């Protein structure tokens, strides 16, 4: 798979004010993070959890408070982001991998839960399809894959409307317009979102059953799929 060579450096820089920037720049960010624990089936008790693109650890922090005895594996291309996680989770059983998903050695039947928040839209459509297969094979039987993301392709007829609403949201938090300009620069350079209808097909092809969208506001989606 082709790698986005600069994404690690982009997120090293982004790590400085990451959470407040995400809350102000990503509609429903807090809900899309809390969804990772809110919508898990009752009595689901994962022992082994993998997060792809952990960033500064907001999703793992949620999961650790629910499943303190689980073993966590956190993967991220950004060394600075992983450093924030190392500090935050120093008292927990966490394995860190400073790696691109494309280089990460997914082992078969290893995890009960695999999560990804706002990280898979950095992959091309082909890479997404490959990683869905790797995720499926790395899950144990009955395991769950869940992810939050913007799920609309840039060619979708609704994309201009999405950009308008998104811009209004960001400008309401950062009225000087500079932050929205930065978001659009980042979006043009690094983001390759795909329609959720397409992703549902890819997930089925990768072997997932029972795929649903427990939270969806427009194209901001939290999706869950069972192996
Ligand atoms: C927008 S942040 C999301 C962080 C966190 N999951 C959250 O929800 O707040 C995306 C993260 O994915 C990482 N990332 C993006 N593409 C990646 C890739 N191909 N391989 C590894 N990490 C990647 C970035 O370095 C960044 O830390």
From TrEMBL:
**Gene3D superfamilies given for it?**
Vaccinia Virus protein VP39
Q: Where is the Methyltransferase domain?
A: 49-143
Query: What protein is this chain from?
Result: Class I SAM-dependent methyltransferase
InterPro entries for this protein: Methyltransf_25 (IPR041698), SAM-dependent_MTases_sf (IPR029063)
Presence of keyword Transferase? yes
| Keyword Transferase assigned | yes
Q: Which CDD domains match?
A: AdoMet_MTases
Which Gene Ontology terms cover its molecular function? Answer: methyltransferase activity
Q: Which UniProt keywords apply?
A: Methyltransferase, Transferase
Instruction: Cite a single GO BP annotation.
Output: methylation
Domain of life (superkingdom) = Bacteria
